[in-house]
Amino acid sequence: MRIKPGANTYGKNAVNLSRIIRHEDYHEFRQVSVSVALTGDFDTAHTVGDNALILPTDTQKNTVYALAREHFTGPIEAFGLTLSQHFLSRNPQVSQVRVELVEHLWQRMAFDGAAHPHAFTGGGSEKRTTVVTRTAAGTTVVSGLKGLMLLKTTDSAFVGYPKDEFTVLPETTDRILATECEASWEYTSAGLDFEVLHHRIRQSLLRTFSEHKSLSVQHTLYAIGEKILQENDEVKEISLIMPNKHHIPFNLEPFGMANTNEIFVATDAPFGYITGTVTREE
Predict the structure, then answer these.
(1) Has 61 been annotated as catalytic?
(2) What is the pLDDT of residues 265-277, one digit of tens each?
């Protein structure tokens, strides 16, 4: 029986990078976490301890910082493409490069209607994401967002579901719909205007969530994905994670007050976990 190495990768995770882009009269501040994973001919490193083909992960980290000075000035997708090309073109033993970037969003403070030139506030829990995967055969770009808190106070219902001896959940035609949305979409090309597309897709997501007459989280998830694909030919498919962050009506009747669907208990756990992918029919 012959034993040999199976699939393996290695790289540098969580390279935390902050970047000031200095314009004449204002600054931009960017903060990203970059992870690099290399796949290739690394068998001898595993079997005989020969590191001749192992690009040190410390070198990978330093490359991220060094290339950021010239190349991290636009969307994270563009920087990911630059990094992936750098590692693939210089290392013939590497067959695939995967670069994942997560951007922490900062916004310039504003006072009296004017943006401050160099003071910022955090953008909350939302982060922008991309994964660039490059091989000799081609490149894929999968971008998205996570930590996007969404809530609407009406236009959400949940009725008509199966009931058994353990079902106590009452049907409702008017409830809070709240979620922490994560979305990822695959682009059809690596040569697109990623900045414009990201904001257009995000705006479509927000508008559909707010306007959709929801009969379930699944119903709204599909409506969001469907609308984004209808409006953006550059998107091949989109996957969404939409956990149901429950807000349970609090019973005021023991205190002599009517229940008017205004007071709720916000719960962290347990919660419903709903995922789905919406794709184009071949």
Answers:
(1) no
(2) 999 899 999 999 9
